[in-house]
Specification:
This is Rab GDP dissociation inhibitor. This protein has about 450 residues and is α/β, with parallel strands linked by helices. The chain has twelve helices and 19 strands. Helix 1 runs parallel beside helix 9 and helix 1 crosses helix 11. It is globular, with a radius of gyration of 23 Å.
């Protein structure tokens, strides 16, 4: 194994697999290693036996849950915004050829005492029971302004400079009160807390437009989800890397990592390889990361759809912080057998939030109350780490941990940040020239065969 690579990637979480694929397409010689025997790391999808082994070592799943192979349950639940960054990355790398997606049936927000469908247009706002009579007209005016707003056209700005005006001031201009602000900020803009209110409004407008654009693609909701679970995503990017010469090694315990003569040396099972730089998840370099929070996640298996969700086979539910007296939102992602993630007649509801107390699971009670009777429950608390340095000096580029959000936008921003730190140039999300060339060659071959 005594060989030199441009890059060694440690860990097969989604971020590391995307970076591995992107670097391979760029022509870099990549070695990708993981101490685990499966792809996905923290972002893997497990069958029922693996789930029970992880959370209840030694216990066997009850026969009432069905066959283990019918389950592909995400450890880190997230949906994909259909016009979001992850879709752009999938198209940029042509990884969509390895995946099938299903549209998520609905998007809901909690407003005491129950969940309600999220309105995302002026006409939906007028019919929504989320809003009172007078609020509906304020919301209609606000949504019309958002839809007509064009950054390049001052006539659509209504005298507002969104690069300096705060979102709080914009809401005040349209006379919006606490409840509509709650669902706009948390269910449309998908903010985890209320810090955005005192920041320039331009980012909130971009987030709303992304939500509405994503919704316009399929109509039911702005989200899509891969068949067979999120664990398919890292495997698809790993396949891309392999096509472009990337080498993968699972079940490789990492014994030593040292920096010597401007090179990184990684030793596994007595053999050493070198590279110009290393990319890894935080668990491989505990001395180079700082703990900035914790996330609690709970996987719940149900026998029925979530109440008040129109019997949907899948949905997202956001519980805004203020509705339950918290500092950050609670997210619920629901999927079922049509997504190939559980046995027929079962539903999987995965709940996540930032930990705020010494009793993390109790913080999820508001979500448990909404999803109906729980057959089995698997709860975990994960530390949230961020790298201390950007990696340019010691050639060690680390990702952040996965946050509590219910979508992949923050994950992708971290990948783009990593890419720029490593290569010194931004990631431009158009179809890569190398892939375009490959597609053209394939097309010519197909035409020649005809």
């Amino acid at each position: 194994m005594d060989e030199h690579y441009d890059c060694i990637v440690l860990g097969t979480g989604l971020k590391e697999c995307i970076i591995s694929g992107l670097l391979s397409v760029e022509g870099k010689k990549v070695l990708h290693m993981d101490r685990n025997g499966y792809y996905g790391g923290e972002s893997a999808s497990l069958n029922l036996n693996q789930l029970f082994e992880k959370f209840r070592a030694g216990a066997k799943p009850p026969p009432t849950l069905g066959a283990s192979r019918d389950y592909n349950i995400d450890l880190i639940p997230k949906f994909i915004l259909s016009s979001g960054l992850l879709v752009k990355m999938l198209l940029h790398t042509d990884v969509t050829r390895y995946l099938d997606f299903k549209v998520v049936d609905g998007s809901y927000v909690y407003q005491k005492p129950k969940i309600q469908k999220v309105p995302a247009s002026d006409s939906e706002a007028l019919s929504s029971s989320l809003l009172g009579f007078f609020e509906k007209f304020s919301c209609k005016k606000f949504f019309s302004f958002v839809q007509n707003y064009d950054e390049e056209d001052p006539k659509t700005h209504d005298g507002l400079n969104l690069k300096t005006t705060t979102m709080r001031a914009v809401f005040a201009k349209f006379g919006l009160k606490a409840d509509p602000i709650d669902f706009i900020g948390h269910a449309l803009c998908l903010y985890l807390n209320d810090e955005y209110l005192d920041k320039p409004a331009i980012e909130s407008f971009q987030r709303m437009k992304l939500y509405v654009d994503s919704l316009a693609r399929y109509g039911k909701s702005p989200y899509i989800y891969p068949m067979y679970g999120l664990g398919e995503l890292p495997q698809a990017f790993a396949r891309l890397s392999a096509i472009y010469g990337g080498t993968y090694m699972l079940n490789k315990p990492i014994e030593k990592i040292v920096s010597e003569d401007g090179k990184i040396k990684v030793t596994s099972e007595g053999e050493t390889v070198t590279a110009d730089y290393v990319v890894a998840d935080p668990s491989y370099f505990p001395d180079k990361v700082k703990l900035t929070g914790r996330v609690v996640r709970s996987i719940c298996i149900l026998n029925a759809p979530v109440p008040n969700s129109n019997n949907n086979e899948s949905c997202q539910i956001i519980i805004p912080q203020k509705q339950v007296g918290r500092k950050s939102d609670i997210y619920i992602g629901v999927i079922s057998s049509p997504h190939m993630v559980c046995a027929k007649g079962k539903y999987v509801a995965i709940v996540s939030t930032n930990v705020e107390t010494n009793e993390p699971e109790k913080e999820l009670q508001a979500a448990y109350d909404l999803i109906g009777p729980i057959v089995e429950k698997f709860t975990s608390v994960s530390d949230y780490f961020e790298p201390i340095a950007d990696g340019r000096q010691d050639k060690t580029f680390l990702s952040t941990s996965y946050d509590a959000t219910s979508h992949f936008e923050t994950t992708c921003l971290d990948v783009m940040n990593l890419f720029e730190r490593i290569l010194g140039k931004p990631l431009v999300l158009t179809i890569h020239p190398n892939l375009l060339k490959e597609q053209q060659q394939q097309q010519q071959q197909e035409e020649g065969q005809q």
